[in-house]
Each structure stands twice: as structure tokens, then as C-alpha cells.
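Researcher: Quick test of sequence recovery. C-alpha cells follow.
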């Protein structure tokens, strides 16, 4: 069992940045691909970004150029740096881990999920 703990959420003004973190204690973190998801109308969770075990990244079109996913295997942590936030970016953001090394833009392959961290954007 892998426990994922998100942090970094909070209230930010529109146009501001925010960095989310997801810690995954354990010796196998570097073997996982990691993803970030958020709820969306008509979907339980929609894909935001993922990073493969070897740090290849992939983004949903709406966040390309605005969000950056990265990982620090020495700290067992994955990050989601968000810039120029808009009210429509407000959501609970969930990180997830999968043994599928490339990761996925679908939630199905992810084996482990965090509890979520709330991002609120004021206009």
C-alpha cells in the first residue's frame, strides 16, 4: 500500500501561482509514474498532468504552458507548479501513483490516490 499525501493547496488570487506537493514515503517511489487529477463536470476526475518514472511529462490541453509537473525522487515527492491561475482552475487536486511506468491520462491505471488538496482562486 502506498500512501500519498498532498499539500500546498489554498486560496490564491487570480493570476497568481501555487505549487502543490504530493509526498509518497517509501523506497519504490522512483518506480511509479505519478499523475494529478481534478473533478470536472460529468467526470469523477479529469486528467491534469502526469510524469513517467523517468520524468517524461504529459499535460491536458487546458493546462499546457500554465502548469508544470516535476518529481524529486530523493524526496519522494511530485510537484504541480501552477501559474496564472484562473477561477476555473479552482478544484480539489488529487495526486495518484501507478506502476505503469509511462503513466496515463486516464484514472483507471492509477493504483493509489491521495486525499486531495483544495485550490481556491479568487477573482
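Model:
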Amino acid at each position: 500500500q502506498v500512501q500519498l499525501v498532498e499539500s500546498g493547496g489554498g486560496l490564491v488570487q487570480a493570476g497568481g501561482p501555487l505549487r502543490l506537493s504530493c509526498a509518497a514515503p517509501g523506497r519504490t517511489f522512483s518506480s511509479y509514474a505519478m499523475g494529478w487529477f481534478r473533478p470536472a463536470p460529468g467526470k469523477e476526475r479529469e486528467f491534469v498532468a502526469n510524469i513517467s518514472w523517468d520524468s517524461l511529462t504529459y499535460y491536458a490541453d487546458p493546462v499546457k504552458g500554465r502548469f508544470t509537473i516535476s518529481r524529486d525522487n530523493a524526496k519522494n515527492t511530485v510537484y504541480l507548479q501552477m501559474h496564472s491561475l484562473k477561477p476555473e482552475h479552482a478544484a480539489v487536486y488529487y495526486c495518484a501513483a501507478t506502476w505503469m511506468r509511462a503513466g496515463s491520462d486516464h484514472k483507471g491505471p492509477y493504483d493509489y490516490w491521495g486525499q486531495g488538496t483544495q485550490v481556491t482562486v479568487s477573482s
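The mean pLDDT is 95.
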